[in-house]
Amino acid sequence: MMPQKIVILTGAGISAESGLGTFRAEGGLWAEHRIEDVATPEGFARNPQLVMDFYNARRAQAAAASPNAGHEALARLEAGFSGEVILITQNVDDLHEKAGSQRVMHMHGALTGALCGACEHRWPAPDRMSPGDSCPQCNAPAARPDIVWFGEMPYDMDEIFDHLSGADLFVSIGTSGNVYPAAGFVAEARRHGAQTIEFNLEPSEVGSQFDDIRLGPATRTLPDWVAEVLGS
Ligand code: BJW
Which residues touch 131 (CB under 8 Å, ≥6 apart)? Predict the structure, then answer.
C-alpha cells in the first residue's frame, strides 16, 4: 500500500559525502574532541573558547559544503509526493535546506543560530562567535551556539512524537542509533503501526528494529528509493 505520511530522520551519514565529518567513525569528530568538552553545557562553562572554536570551525565547513544526491533526492520526494513528508534532522548543517527541502525540523539545533543562555532569545549566528558575546534582546553576555548538547532537551519533541504516531512509513538515514531520544523513534513509529526502513552503510545499533534495511552510500541508495516511491 502506498504510504500517506512519511516521516524521515537523518543523521551525520547523509552529509558525509558532502565532506562533513560524522561523529563516531574512526577519525570522526569524537575521535578528535572529547564529547564532554565540546558537546555538554558543563564543557561550555569550563572552556567556552574551546567550544566556540569547535562550532566556529564547523559553521565555516558547513557554509562551504554543498548538498549531495542524497539531500537532493529527499527534496524531490517532498516536492513530488502526493502525501505528507516530514523531515527531522539531527544534523546542525543546513544542507537539506540548500537542497530545497522546505519543512525541516532541526532537533539538535543549527550552526546558523545563536542562543542566549540567559533569556533563550535566538538570532542568526555571526560567522564567528566569541565567549561573552551579548544577547541583542537582553544584553546579557551569554551568547552560545544554538546547539542541543548532551543533557539538554532536543527541540520540537511534542511535534515530532505527534508526527511519529501518525506515520505510515518511518525512514532513518545515516544515523548510528547511539543517541536518544532519536534512536527511539523507530520503536515509537512501529508502536503506532508504521512500516520502517533504515538506510546506512551498515546496520545501526537499532538496525534489528527495522522492517527493511538498505545498505550503501546515501548518494546511491536514496535516489533509487525516491524514484521507487515517486514511480519515476
Ligand atoms: C552513512 C554514510 C553514507 C556514514 N551513507 N550512511 C542512557 C540511555 C539512554 C539515553 C541516555 C543515557 N544517558 C544519557 C542519555 C541521553 C543522551 C544520550 O542519548 N546519550 C547516549 C550517548 C547514551 N541524550 C541526550 O542527552 C539528549 N537529550 C535528552 O535525552 O533529553 C531528555 C529527553 C528525555 C525524553 C525525551 C526527550 C528528551 C540530547 C542529545 C544531544 C546530541 N547532541 C549531539 C551534538 C550536538 C550537535 C553537533 O555538535 O553537531 O548531536 S551528539 C551527536 O550525535 C550529534 C548528532 O546529531 C548525534 C547523532 O549522531 P549521528 O547522526 O547518528 O552520527 P554518527 O557519527 O553516530 O553516525 C553516522 C552514521 O552514518 C553511521 O551509522 C554510519 O554508518 C552512517 N554513514 N556515511 C549512509 N555515505
Answer: 48, 49, 52
Nearest CA to ligand 1 atom 9: 180
pLDDT, tens digit (0-9, with 9 covering 90-100), for 75-86: 999 999 999 999
Amino acid at 97: E
Say if residue 176 is in the same domain as residue 225: yes
Same domain, residue pair 95 and 182: yes
Please tell me whether residues 86 and 200 are part of one structural domain. Answer: yes
CA of 91 to the centre of ligand 1 (A): 10
Residue 137: domain span: 21-64+111-147
Terminal Cα-to-Cα distance of the chain (whole angstroms): 17
Please indicate whether residue 108 is annotated as part of the active site.
yes
The reply to whether 162 and 126 lie within a common domain is no
Residue 83: CB atoms within 10 A of its CB come to 12
* pLDDT tens digits along 11-69: 999 999 999 999 999 889 888 899 999 999 999 999 999 999 999 999 999 999 999 99
Q: Which of 15, 23, 93, 186 for mutating ligand 1's site (highest number of atoms within 8 Å of CB)?
A: 23
User: What confidence score (pLDDT) does residue 2 get?
Assistant: 81
pLDDT of residue 170: 98
Exactly one of 71, 96, 106, 108 is catalytic; name it: 108
Respond yes or no on whether the N-terminal peptide bond of residue 126 is cis (omega within 30° of 0): no
> What total number of domains does the chain contain?
2
